[in-house]
UniProtKB/TrEMBL annotation:
Signal peptide: 1-24
Protein name: Serine protease Do-like HtrA
Pfam families: PDZ_3 (PF17815), Trypsin_2 (PF13365)
Organism name: Posidoniimonas corsicana
Keyword Repeat attributed: no
Keyword Transcription attached: no
Keyword terms: Hydrolase, Protease, Serine protease, Signal
Start and end residues of each Protease Do-like PDZ domain: 344-483
Taxonomy of the source species: Bacteria, Pseudomonadati, Planctomycetota, Planctomycetia, Pirellulales
EC class name: hydrolase
Length: 494
């Protein structure tokens, strides 16, 4: 009997539906729930950590029996447990690579046989198109089981991530919530991005880290360490203003961005240079380059792609002439106030004082009220917030907390967050240097001068040394300093 068209279409629809269910089932098997116990650093009491806290996120298995997730999901983790879809058992995992700036991390299960039972996700080789449909998988708050939501790609841009990291970001309108972080977003059954953020003030606006960034990250950490992407950090401005363009001598056809402040003293760029091209890519007056027919991205997107041997080719317009230059690229800013990120601050205790390295987290966290205090005391933490190092090993050393209560502190005010300028007249270069200055002090008194409008602190050296053990015992502090600083303290002066 001849086959009817209706029956044929019905059979085809059933086959396609079955294939769709099979593909979805395969994806679900690749997605895992990640439960984390973490202990964040205490920047004001750097000898200790904050109380343990619990959180959860999502992850997805990739090639090599590795789990891909967000860096913020496992930040400061002391314990990580992974649970497969549909399973009751939880398995211990550890972080083997992390990129804080791009918010990606790789985990390994301690039991390799469990990892082998979880199928890896297939990755797309291309950026999705605008309005392309996506499906997001994860374990958001509000339930214990796997959640699946759908949406479309609404925007792709090159922007800032965390800790000054730069990268591509995909905006989607799928419903994403805390706990979705680290979960995969797929289109045509292939990974197009990893969920990492949402806007709390807006409905259904979430963000993905695209596969392009994921592949770059995995290639970076293949040697066991994360270096970050090469980037340009020069301060630039648009060239849209007519008066500015006339001042620069730009004709109507010349576009680009004008350099306001070159990055570093050895930069080939000068103030008022106009960067017109990065590699072969023309930069428009707002600082964007074209990528295909749909996308217009910040010119910095092309920096790591055009970079070779630490240089990126630029075309600049200077003094009425077009020039080809090779500009240095850098893997992060060399700031005098570093970012601790996923680490913990070092510290050293001497007498009634604790010393630590001043960081971005401390200088920024206090907000306007703290900044007003910095201004009132001429504290350099505010003035040097975005400064580069003036010499290679420069750090600002600060007193993060009150003076420990002890009889030798009588008459002194607390100097919380004050920066140490010198010890016995010797300028302090960094925290290990301060420890060595205290170690090598031999006079009856030790003078500690603080930067700004703070009183100088003078202690009898022997009294301070004797007070150290008393204070450690009284405060319940196990060690006088971080391991590397204790090595400095115990070393002989040679």
């Amino acid at each position: 009997m001849p086959r009817t068209p209706g029956l044929t279409l019905a059979v085809l629809a059933a086959v396609l539906l079955q294939q769709g269910h099979a593909a979805a089932a395969g994806v679900r098997d690749s997605v895992v729930r990640i439960e984390v116990t973490s202990r964040a650093p205490d920047f004001y009491r750097p000898w200790s950590k904050k109380s343990p806290s619990s959180s959860s996120g999502s992850g997805v298995m990739i090639e090599g029996n590795r789990i891909l997730t967000n860096a913020h999901v496992v930040q400061h983790a002391s314990q990580i447990q992974v649970q497969q879809h549909g399973a009751s058992d939880k398995h211990a995992a550890r972080v083997v690579a992390v990129g804080p700036g791009i918010d990606l991390a790789v985990l390994e299960l301690e039991d390799a046989s469990v990892a082998e039972s979880i199928p890896p996700i297939a990755m797309s080789d291309e950026l999705p198109k605008l309005r392309q449909s996506i499906t997001a998988y994860g374990y958001p708050m509000g339930g214990e089981e796997l959640s699946i939501t759908e949406g479309v790609v609404s925007r792709i841009e090159f922007t800032s991530f965390y800790y000054e990291g730069l990268g591509l970001r995909i905006q989607v309108d799928a419903a994403l919530n805390p706990g979705n972080s680290g979960g995969p977003a797929l289109s045509d059954d292939k990974l197009i991005g990893l969920v990492f953020s949402k806007i709390n003030e807006a409905d259904n606006i979430g963000y993905l880290i695209p596969v392009e960034e994921i592949r770059d990250f995995l290639a970076d950490v293949a040697d066991g360490s994360y270096d970050g992407k090469p980037a340009l950090y020069d301060d630039v401005n648009t060239t849209e203003n007519r008066a500015l363009r006339e001042r620069l001598g730009l004709d109507g056809d010349t576009t680009g961005v004008v350099v306001e402040a070159p990055y570093g003293d050895d930069s080939v760029l000068k103030r008022w240079d106009v960067i017109t091209h990065i590699g072969p890519h023309e930069i428009d007056n707002q600082g964007y380059v074209r990528l295909g027919d749909e996308l217009r991205l910040r010119y910095l997107y092309q920096a790591p792609k055009c970079a070779e041997d630490g240089k990126v080719p630029l075309t600049i317009f200077r003094d009425g002439e077009s020039l080809e230059v090779q500009a240095d690229v850098h893997r992060g800013r060399d700031l005098v106030l570093p970012i601790v990120g996923h680490g913990y601050p070092d510290y050293f205790i001497w007498g009634p004082l604790v010393f630590t390295t001043a960081t971005q987290e401390v200088a920024v966290r206090g907000g306007p009220r703290m900044w007003a205090s910095f201004m009132a005391t001429d504290n350099p933490l505010l003035g040097r917030l975005r400064d580069l190092k003036r010499f290679p090993d420069e750090e600002l050393v600060m007193i993060p907390n009150r003076l420990f209560p002890h009889r030798i502190t009588r008459g002194y005010s607390n100097a919380t967050l004050a920066v140490v300028e010198s010890v016995d007249g010797q300028p302090v270069r960094n925290l290990p240097h301060l420890v060595s200055l205290l170690r090598d002090a031999s006079g009856e008194f030790v003078e500690i001068d603080l930067a700004g409008r703070y009183e100088s602190l003078v202690f009898r050296r022997r009294e301070a040394l004797e007070a150290t053990e008393e204070i450690l015992t009284d405060e319940g502090i196990r060690r006088q300093g971080s391991p590397e600083l204790l090595k400095v303290w115990e070393a002989s002066d040679e």
